[in-house]
Amino acid sequence: MQARTVQKSEEPTRVNEGIRAYFSEESFERLSGIMYSKHAKKGSTLFWEGDKADYLYFIHKGRVKVSKTMDEGSSLTLYLHHDGDLLGFGDCLSETPHILCAEALEDCSLGVIQRKDLEVLLWQHGDLAVEFMRWQGMMHTLTQTKLRDLMMFGKPGALCSLLIRLNNSYGTSCGENSRITVKMNNTEMAEMIGATRESVNRMLSDLKKDDIIDLENGHLIIKDLTYLRDVCHCDNCPKHICRV
Prior knowledge:
CATH architecture of the domain at 18-147: Sandwich
Helix content: 25-40%
Low-confidence stretches: 1-16
Order of helices and strands: HEEEEEEEEHHHEEHHEEH
Largest sheet: 4 strands, antiparallel
Structural class: alpha+beta
Number of strands: 12
Strand order of the largest sheet: 1-8-3-6
Shape: globular
């Protein structure tokens, strides 16, 4: 039997970078200058589908789930945002409604940016406008890669892709393996790949039997990242794209 190559997981470098990877220090200070503080309790909603997209939200601390409600009442989770991320969906520079819903997964400390204030700032500072366009381009690319994973390689491929994205976002070295620091139950993972909880249970059990993953005190352990990449035909996207 051919020996399996076990790949060490790198320390996640982007969890706390967020938009700082796209904006200069001066530009970030300008954005900070037009933010006002807001606290959101766990389970509260930042915006609903159909609300006007008049605000962007910068996460100082906490995690926010962004999802889409399907016609039959089920939910598809598209993003998990964390410290340092900026979120706001729809065309945030025109009067269009949100097409997604954002919910706080834990108590959050936020900075809120009004659309009108942002427009003035972008008009005044061309360098900030260019950086803002780069950030929006990254978000579009992130969405495209997630849709590719959901549609092209079936549910097993989508689950393997999710595990890789979780590792890039929340993985820490654990010997030769990688430990996902954020606990996620099977229902939450099912909502992120458009599957049922039962199918996720079955696929995770198969991966555990094959010694690809393990579970330790509620935390996922990634033991064979190469296998996961092969299943979802990984394109080796940079970590700021391959994230949840």
